[in-house]
Amino acid sequence: MEEGPVSPGARAERNPRTRPSLLLRVRDLGDQKSWQEFVELYGPVILRYLRKVGVPDHDAPDLAQDVLRIVVQQIGRFEYDAGRSFRAWLRTIATHRAYRHFAREWRQPQTPGGTDHMAAIQEIPVADAEQDALIEAEWRTRRLEMAMKQVRQEVTGPAWRAFELRYLEQLPPAEVAGRLGMKIGAVYTSLSQVLKRLREAVEEIDGSAS
Length: 210
Hints:
elongated
């Protein structure tokens, strides 16, 4: 199996040591490229977190945009703290926005069959650790999505399809080999190479987004 080469320049561009952290770069409100990267990375995390704490699907996108606007306003005041991650700070903003949403809805007259907004407020986890675990789970999902997107663009030939069949479709390696017309040893080699690239991509995302 042959894979397309990855140029040294491309590897350097992905290496977080060669560029400032994303969270430092977005402090410059004029850096549109970094903000687009931030929104692509964290937008789905915020959206899925809001849905997890009970915000209805039809309201969640607007609330996610509100959270991003608040981040734009407050990112310059965010201070790194070894005991407090950026995602914990982001979770605090998102949770407060969800509380405000439910409180406003609760004050409005209820319609027959409408949402019990006070019950929705009470359903939001109150423990920071529980809330942080929710947003960390969404972050891990998004991080893997981004890493897979990146590696998919790098890997050529049957290697990526072997990865999909083995790990996404859960087929045995022998069946993967049969479907792709590969030797079983080549399947294992391909899987090892793709998994190594994925681990590297995850580490790069962690380094850039911290």
